Amino acid sequence: MEHPDCPLCRDAGGHLVASAARWRVIRAAEPDFPAFYRVIWTDHVAEFSDLTPLDREACMAVVLAVEQALRQHLTPTKINLATLGNVVPHLHWHVIARFDWDSHFPNPVWGERRRTLPQDAASRLPISLSALDAHVREAVSGLG
Question: What is the pTM of this model?
């Protein structure tokens, strides 16, 4: 079921990395946080508890695979997981690699900036964003 007023029903929601019938993984356009991914449920549901038990398991398998890919290929200080939906009430999980050098650390990504980086945040990652996207795509392949 789709809602015409919902931006996550209308659009991919970011740079599409992988998709299956029930979900898609995008990389968000967040320059301060280049390894910011979202797992977006295809059907328009507001809450995780709206899913069937099998769909919840499938959704969390994708979230876990994205987290593991980020940990393996970036070695971040921390991974942040969140599902808020206050602004866009369409079920999606934020999977964000955080680093002790990032602009807001240890504050949340939506919190107060702690520092200005002397260079582009993506250039500080050990691999390119296209390579990271490929690793995330590989991690979720077969979970459709």
Answer: 0.95
Q: What is the pLDDT of residues 4-43, one digit of tens each?
A: 788 999 899 999 999 999 999 999 999 999 999 999 999 9
Q: Is residue 2 part of a domain?
A: no
d(CA 106, CA 77): 10
Domain CATH for 86: 3.30.428.10
Task: Please state, as a whole number, how many other Cβ atoms lie within 10 Å of the Cβ of residue 139.
Answer: 22
CA distances from 2 to 8, 26, 50, 55, 79 (A): 9, 18, 15, 17, 30
Determine, yes or no, domain membership for 1: no
Rounded mean pLDDT, 49-53: 96
Q: How many domains does the structure of the chain reveal?
A: 1
